[in-house]
Amino acid sequence: MNAILIVDDEKNTREGLRLSLEDEFDVYISSNIKGAKDVLDNEHIDVLVTDLRLGAEDGMELIELALKMPQPPISIMMTAYGSVDTAVEAMKRGAYHFVTKPLNIDQLEILIKRALNTRSLKEENSELKKQVQKKFTISNILGKSSAMQPLLGTRLLLIKHLQHEYMLFLLFLKLLLQQLESYNSFLIQRNFYFYGGLRNIWQSRE
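Predicted structure:
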């Protein structure tokens, strides 16, 4: 089961997220950067979800700290309506995405699962690439006798061709993942501005 660290200085938010997500994930909680760092140092955390404002502390600082770890967690920032620009800046620095408050739990859970699936796919592709490169190294090619030498050049050309085709496939897959992530970001931001606009219209009528 994947582990998630929720960092928010509001107790109700921390506990609410823990109760909502603990059936699907191992959930850790903290109210500040020091407590979050202790968890990150002692537990394997797959996803970090932190508020932008942690009392007098800055959630951006926590994300930057987490991203410097040997195995950095996927980082998602929670932010209020008026702090979207800061959240976008966090994404430029390495955060996976952001969600706005008040939180939509279903949206957050979908975002977490999508991020985990994307990372899993990237790790599988990386491992497959290593296996292919190892399998087709010269040291693993049989037939070093003089009678086999005429075939060796042909084999090497074939191997280079296969490696080239595989690298093109990985590049295509990487570009596809980037397009999917960009599209998901567009949908989330579009919904954010759409519903934010509706809320402003409703408040103006009041």
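Summary: Confidence is low (pLDDT under 50) at residues 197-203.
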